[in-house]
Amino acid sequence: MDARKRIALVAHDEMKPKMMAWATTHKAELEKHELIGTGTTGGLLASEVGLEVTCLKSGPLGGDLELGNLIVNDGLDMLIFFWDPMTAQPHDVDVKALLRISAVHNIPIACNQASADFFVTSRWFSAPYETAQPDYTAHINRAVQADT
Ligand SMILES: O=C(CO)COP(=O)(O)O
């Protein structure tokens, strides 16, 4: 990854106040990067915090899956996702898909304020970082039977 990262910012509704407060604290650091948000989170980061954010669809309307698509196609470096551990989400499968595909592609994920604090204070946050690419050759070349 380059020094200037492509960072997704996402928060479930109950976590949005925490995300806005966190982004306000770290606004100067975040401004150095390309920011992408799910619709509502991104809109609030722009209007409440004053950050420039590319807004995708709202999470439950496909925004989480759009982020997954970016990850699969090498369009995202980092995910900061304050997901809500106490509230059921109608799009729980999309949330799981986003978290899973981040793990598949070795994308750094911060899922709460403490881990996000570690991210912004990491020496790699504003420096190039060589991401280890998982090797899925064995999966791609695995033997599968085409007929029964
Ligand atoms: O639901 C979300 C993530 O799963 C976030 O979506 P919004 O930012 O549109 O509220």
UniProtKB/TrEMBL annotation:
Record's function text: Catalyzes the formation of methylglyoxal from dihydroxyacetone phosphate.
Record keyword Lyase present: yes
Active site, UniProt feature: D64
Record-level GO BP terms: methylglyoxal biosynthetic process
GO molecular function: methylglyoxal synthase activity
Protein name in the entry: Methylglyoxal synthase
GO CC terms, sorted: cytosol
Keyword field: Lyase
Originating organism: Desulfoluna spongiiphila
Family designation: Belongs to the methylglyoxal synthase family.
